[in-house]
Amino acid sequence: MEDKLSIKVSIADKLYPMRVRREDEERYRKAAKMINEKLLKYKQTFKDSSEKDFLAMVSLHFATNYLLMEEKIDQTPVIDKLNELNDSLLSHIDEYNLESS
């Protein structure tokens, strides 16, 4: 059974209770802090917007950053190179086996 921990995180002055794995607690707290910091920056920059607008802008900010990170860690080139090396090794092994026979 996983070790779950009950925590409360505050986002936009509202507490959200949740159960998280003990090893994930710091990540959740850090995420809430990042959201609140970005929310504060938007509030200071765009004073005439609503709380809903600020939260939408924060969501968009983090979603676009997430997508950017996904693009940066695209594993396709690495997998292609590994397949190429594997094919080369198999070819050399086949040649060695033919020469040894």
What's the structural blueprint in terms of helices and strands?
Layout: E1 4-11, E2 14-21, H1 25-45, H2 51-72, H3 76-100
Antiparallel strand pairs: 1-2
Helix pairs in contact: 1-2
Number of strands: 2
Query: Strand-and-helix sequence, N→C?
Result: EEHHH
For the biggest sheet, the summary is: 2 strands, antiparallel
Beta-strand proportion:
15-25%
Trace the largest sheet across and list its strands: 1-2
Cα-based radius of gyration, to the nearest Å? 25 Å
What's the N-to-C terminus distance?
A: 55 Å
Secondary-structure-derived class: alpha+beta
Bulk shape: elongated
Question: What is the count of helical runs?
Answer: 3
Helical coverage, percent range: 55-70%
As residue ranges, the low-confidence spans are none
How is this structure best described in words?
There is one protein chain. The chain is α+β, with helices and mostly antiparallel strands. It has a domain at 4-72. 67% of the residues lie in helices and 16% in strands. Strands 1-2 form a two-stranded antiparallel sheet. A hairpin with a 2-residue loop joins strand 1 and strand 2. The chain starts with a strand and ends with a helix.
Task: Give structural attributes.
101 residues, alpha+beta, 67% helix, two-stranded antiparallel ribbon
Summary of the model, kept short:
By secondary structure, the protein is an alpha+beta fold. It is 67% helix and 16% strand.
